[in-house]
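Notebook, bench 3.
Goal today: get a predicted structure for DUF389 domain-containing protein from Lentilactobacillus sunkii so we can plan the truncation constructs. The sequence was checked against the plasmid map this morning, with no discrepancies at the termini. Length recorded as 422 residues. Pasting the sequence as submitted so the record is complete.
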Amino acid sequence: MQQISMPTLNQNIRNGLNFTWSTQAILFCAIIIACIGLNVDSAPIVIGAMLISPLMAPVVGIGYGLGNSNSKVLIQSLRLLLIQVTIAVVGATVYFFISPLNATSAQLLARTEPTLWDVLIALVGGFAGIISSAKKDGGNIVPGVAIATALMPPLCTVGYGISHLNTTFIVGAGYLFLINAFFIALATAIGTIFFRIRSGEKLNVPVRQQLVLLVVSIIIVIPSSISAYSIVHNSYINTQLSQFIEAKLSDQYITKQSVSGKRIELSVIGKRLSEEQVKDLTKSLQDYHLDGYQLDLNQLTKGNYITPKEFQKYIKQTGNTDAIQDNPSSSGNNINTSFDKNKDVLKTIQTDLNSQYSKEISNIFVGKVKDTDNSAKQLVVIALSKTGEASRSKIKKTADKLAADHNVRITIQFVDGSTKKS
């Protein structure tokens, strides 16, 4: 059985605090790798960078210095951390300044809104790290802690914010790094004190130092707690809204769903609802714990149809670049000609319907749109001629059969073909 001892902990901590140019060169390389991973939105690259990063050593050293009341180790750790943070931020800033990729990736955005869960991860990770450091063979625990607590990505994101003069990224990512570093150090200090008691040492941690750590911890936790509450609250509201939509608007096709403040905005395609029905829907929000919310229902249909004008307006609202293509046999302009793997199937359905119902159909739009859950939907929009209404049911059955024959799921919507296209 492996023994956990203070001498082993002391030796492992001090070994990591030696300032060497090779270590700082490794840190710089790790920072550039992490920046590339964040830039191209690749989690594996970011994880690889965290594996070789030496940033954990000074953070753990700070905690050890506090828990052991060793001012020499504490000052040495703080100095090393300051140097490494400077190297990291400068390296990241330079990289993002010269990088040709300026788009904000999901990996970067994920480092701008710290929550209470980041505090818990840093605490638990810190405990795991100090236990590992107190063992003769820590195994792969320390690299795992480095990945879980993610010290490097926030610093890279700070560099991104500086290079793009974006204070939101600088403040958000800087706060995330502060959370991670502080609570890893705090967990290390608590673990060090525990091991000292376990080994029979006499504690000499001043009461003033304990109070300062407690106050600082509370101050740092408050903003992340507010952020965590916001995430939980928004998740609850979205869940309740989904239940409301499923129960009250199951016959409608929801093209857009958003909640802003106390306002719920829904864009729908389907049978047009009267003002009285919309009022009843608003009243029923309270049954789904959405009291005080105002329902803004944007109906894209006129009567039982969606007009081409409203449909094109919807496409612009969603910002969908993989949207719709006109019937190739018509004289209308293409709205968009970008398709996915079902392109050929949709075009075949389009051609077959146009061939069978040339008199009943004035135009057919096919393509894909994104639903509220960001999933792609294959869409066939049929514009009926003045004489085509009587064949509407028959045309829908034919379209459904063609889709089934080609093993593709489609959403069929009829539009008013009497309106001329622009």
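The first strand starts at residue 253 and ends at 260. The longest helix spans residues 207-248.
Flagging this for group meeting.
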